[in-house]
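Weekly modeling sync, notes
Attendees: AB, CL, MP (scribe)

Item 1: holo prediction request
CL wants a bound-state model with magnesium ion before deciding which constructs to order. AB pointed out that an apo prediction alone won't tell us much about the pocket. Agreed to run with the ligand included and paste results into these notes for async review.

Input as submitted:
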Amino acid sequence: MFGGSIELKTPEQLATMRRAGLVVARTLQRLREAVAPGVTTGDLDALARECLAAEGASSNFLGYHGFPGVICASVNDEIVHGIPGDRVLAEGDLISIDFGAVVDGWHGDAAISVQVGTVASEVAELDRVTEEALWRGIAAARLGGRVGDISHAIESYVRSQGRYGITEGFTGHGIGSEMHQAPDVPNRGRRGRGPKIVEGMALAIEPMITLGTHRAAILADEWTAVTTDGTWAAHHEHTITVTPEGVWVLTALDGGAARLAELGVPCAEPV
Ligand code: MG
């Protein structure tokens, strides 16, 4: 639960969040390209550290409640918060990489699942459903709407696609001068419920979807969240804001323009 009041950002602060978001987007693109059989999750963490240094940005993950990496690397039945280390990726794995950056005190946060070589068809479909659920949630955000509209869009899309688990105990969140702020952005919910979406709000939306259970357990490392039934999970996340011009996906290279156009939603990326 991310409590407290909701921080509303000025246009200048959102512009700085966009700079942080672009660091996140460019780094995740580099990490996606680096994923291959034989690569370790620690190799990916090292690459992310190089990217942060080259960008002159800092990490919001490193040292967060003692977290030892700049990425979370969660493989197969690991849902989120995996610690990068000497685990070697193998053909057919699904790795979820969560990454954040801070620029001039303002935060960005995003995640991608990446298929290692060729994965089982049901795993590829899980990945597709999770990413599409993220975009359905993003596309449901509008000024004057409610956070529950986002939750409902994610849940209803996932439910429409088959018998997937929507992980309980983890939600999206507000973001700004800190990585985790109010409000919670649940991945299940009802339209018209929750806080009103207003100008200056920034939200991290992040469905965590499994091939089985909605239940998660935490490993003895006190970080890694795994499915209790051993089924695999996917995780996709973006940081967004909503302006009178439309939705602005701060952690997408194109500001969300291409995917939002497919969904018929205006994008607020400045031209
Ligand atoms: Mg997040």
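Recorded for review: The CA atoms of residues 100 and 109 lie 4 Å apart.
Action items: CL to compare against the apo run; MP to circulate these notes.
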